[in-house]
Amino acid sequence: MDRKDMFTMSREELLRLEIIKRVLKKGLRQVEAAEHLELSARQVNRITRRVEKEGPRGVIHRLRGCKSNRKIPDAVREKALKLCGSKYEGFGPLLASEKLEELDGIKVSDETLRKWMLSDGKWERRRKRKKNRKWRERKARYGEMVQMDGSHHDWLEGRGPMLVLMGYIDDATGDVYARFYEYEGTVPALDSFKRYARKHGLPLIVYLDRHSTYKSNGKLTVEQELEGMKLMSQFERAMDELGVKVIHANSPQAKGRIERLFGTFQDRLIKEMRLKGIRTLDEANAFLERYLPVYNKRFRVPARESGDMHRELPAGLDINRVLCIKDDRTVRNDTTVSYDGKTYQLYGKVSRKRVAVEQGLDGRIRFYDGGNRLKHKEIPCRTQMAWHRQEKEHRVAKKRSVMLKDYAAQRRWLFGNGAAAPTSTSNY
Fold it and tell me: Are 290 and 153 in the same domain?
């Protein structure tokens, strides 16, 4: 059989041919065939006459095998592929199509170019698949590890300010501690941890994300690297002093327990506060103190092994001196120190060129020279003092100028223009 007599047909075309054959055999009327094929009676009539004249090939569309009128010339295709292999080597189809139009005047869609590159071996199919993550078993004991994070959400549903929920969940039992704050930062993180530690004790591990509050993003200098220094955020420094290990998660999925907790709270807790008409930060925190014990009683799970791994706060430890913002400042020759845009006068004997500064969670500032606390007083900063001095000199100069002008005007009125002033006012 000649290859010209061979052709392919789709399943739809085979069904159409079967129905048209029945029409030709008078076993089916054209109107009924039109209903089966979802075509008009006139179209069925045309197909029937074509099949009667050409045979089975008559059901095939006449444009099959013909070149499209919108086909891009082969020369343009070859030029585009040549540029993709040289000038735009390594470019993806989308970027390459943009550059071809922008720089070379070749307008071709990214999908068309992708097909050309696939057929020419210049591109490979890339399917984005979800990364497989290994399941991690819960920790064995209560207090062994706590997941911590902050959740930004409209917790009050527009009835009050936007709040952040600082949440803690025990990895072994799912026991939850949480508190609302106005923002997520160093002070809320330290304050919430202090409240957690006073209630439960110090956990062995804190598992959290790489937010700048919890992990320093700075870079060490060469000298610091040689000295073996390690940059730490205020939160990392505080945990290091308390002997709590900090682990930073590499993805939100890694700390899925706290993320799922926030998802649950954004459904349950919000509705509970809506029913209670909570509108302020204080009301929300007061409600949490009543809500969390009920929640933990219902959803807490027993740990695999008994025992509490929380550590009590060391005796004699002033936790306020640990959970605070620490820094150091240079002491000037006049025993003044600048901190946070303000100037402080230090009193007492200062034996070091640099003193330690501790800003408590209540905002109070303390200065230490070694282990000795220094008394201090806030004074106007140098720039303010200089400005006041310049302002005073300007007022004095302006007043002097006005006085001189008045004196000259009085002389002209008394003696006239050009008249010499008398040298004596004697009456004799």
Answer: yes
CA atoms of 119 and 126, how far apart (whole Å): 15
Helices (H), 162-308: 186-200, 222-226, 234-242, 256-265, 268-276, 281-299
Residue 252 and residue 366 in one domain:
no
Do residues 300 and 173 make contact, with C-beta atoms less than 8 angstroms apart?
yes
Q: What is the pTM of this model?
A: 0.58
What DSSP assignment string belongs to 132-195?
Answer: P----PPPSSBTSEEEEEEEEE-TTTTSS--EEEEEEEETTT--EEEEEESS-SHHHHHHHHHH
For the chain, 428 residues long, give each residue's pLDDT as a single digit of tens. 455 567 777 788 888 888 888 888 888 888 888 888 888 989 888 888 888 888 888 888 877 777 778 888 888 889 888 888 888 877 778 878 888 888 889 999 989 998 998 888 888 876 655 655 667 788 889 999 999 999 999 999 899 999 999 999 999 999 999 999 999 999 999 999 999 999 999 999 999 888 788 887 777 676 666 677 778 888 999 999 998 999 888 776 777 889 899 988 988 888 888 888 999 999 999 999 999 999 999 899 999 998 899 998 888 888 998 999 998 888 888 888 888 888 888 888 888 788 889 899 888 999 998 888 888 888 886 555 555 566 677 677 777 776 766 666 666 666 665 544 444 444 43
In angstroms, rounded to a whole number, what is the distance separating the alpha carbons of residues 159 and 287?
Answer: 15
Are residue 162 and residue 193 in the same domain, yes or no? yes
Strand partners, 355: 329
Q: Tokens 């640099």 appear where?
A: 354
Residues 353, 283 share a domain: no
